[in-house]
Amino acid sequence: MAPTRIRGxxxxxxxxxxxxxxxxxxxxxYGTAKLEYxxxxxxxxxxxxxxxxxxxxxxxxxTPNSLIERxxxxxxxxxxxxxxxxxxxxxxxxxxxxxTTAAKDVEHPWKNITQPKYRPQxxxxxxxxxxxxxxGVNVVATVVSIFTVDKFGRRILFLxxxxxxxxxxxxxxxxxxxxxxxxxxxxxxxGEGSFTNGEASLLLFFICAYVAAYAWSWGPLGWLVPSEICxxxxxxxx
Length: 238
Known about the structure:
transport
């Protein structure tokens, strides 16, 4: 559905909605935690977005690709004109028709993706989502990715985010070890001790920097890159 020039940014909107949902859910849980039946309120509120999703689906049209696949060529063209806001969509429409025709000729995508020539795509489609889910999420920094992914490219964000995460994690571990050693030497095994305001603030800063790096790189790009790197022969499997 998305125009090519902003497809990356709109794709990342998926990750943005996830982070906003997590934030809102935590705020609701925090607000209802002290209520006697707070857990029921939290659980009940979860029905609100579910109802919105179901009602919204009633007004959601088919994609041009889906209509073409089902042989509804004229309806597909009208839908493309509607979502692009212009009448002259001949070039893009023909590209969609050609791609759909080529996709129908593909057989055994799961078998194809195991071939040696598709090993890089299989690796990316498997390991990027794995390592993405192996870390965490955040809202604000995801906005950075939305505004930069189509301008600077996917690779730059991956590299910058990965390096920033590595550096921040190393500093967090180093700070934790040094502070932990100080507490152990001063308070023994009693478990009584505390960070100074400076130590706590420094540690919190690097934790936030780490999460921010994830949120504008591995978080949203984990959905975007696998969807872009596969050819027609293996796209559905990838």
